[in-house]
Amino acid sequence: MNYREKAAILMRAARRASARTEYLGWLLARYRQIENCSEPELAKRLGVSTADFPRMALCLRPRSKHFAADVSEIAEKFGLDNSELAAVVRLVEAAEAIQALPPSARDAGLLMAARARKPNRKKGGSDAKKP
Amino acid sequence: MDRDELLRLHRRLVDGGRTASEEIATALLGSLTTELSREFPTIDIGLVWDGVTDALLDYCAEPTAFDADRGVPLDRYLHRNAWRNVANFLRQEKRRKIREEKSAELYPVVELSASAGNPSEDNENSHRRHHLLALLKDTRDRQVLELRLQGERRTSEFAKALGISHLPIETQRLEVKKAKDRISKVISRKKGSNR
Question: Which residues of B touch A (CB under 8 A)?
Fold first, then answer.
């Protein structure tokens, strides 16, 4: 098997890993979906070469109980910035957590987050300082 | 990579190592593919690739399924699983072909729609399309059928019609397949009862 064939099968394996939640490839694919970015853009953000990107996708995703150690292990292997990888993983996990909520709770949470705060007139909010 | 090294990687994987899966896959993808493609010389190489890949991904996600004490080396264990996957794909492929043949009988409009430009055929197609759509009561089922009649094949489009785009892709595939099968059954049942 030559180099090109090996690269092709590695790409295909990475694509299949992106459909399995146990793999980092799944997280990377979800991140690209959420942030609407291409594979080279994400590779650039993480500081990984496009050749290493499929290999990275074949790693298992970090476990929540060993998050820091797992992120470090992957980052060290591919020469990435720990914090960038951690940020990518966390963003997807947050989206996953919201997705897992029942629709009513999901909407309520988002509405609460989006609601503008009214200035508190009694306790001397910004409006109270006005002449 | 020798078997001792593979066993060392297996232990790392069992201990929770996150990168061992990549090392095992990189080491074995090539050799397993070469072996399997010799054993299944006449089939699409893509099926061999998927069989090998799935065997590796299944194992890495659940490494304790491999018992090193049984005396079977890891590469042989993965070879056996990959072989089984390819054989299953072949069976599924056969079933899919049979389904497609049945589906071609069910949806002759799709093939006929290629004859665009001929007004009498277009009218006939349109009539058939309306007739088939009228057999379905559910709006989403009608949207799915409409997409099929347009020749759409992408799961994402069917998922949109079914309102399940937010689900993981594997679940979307399953749900889309279920919807298609259900629609086919409804149509064939109603067509049968109309005859």
Answer: 16-19, 21-22, 25-26, 29-30, 33-34, 46, 49-50, 52-54, 56-57, 60-61, 166, 168-170
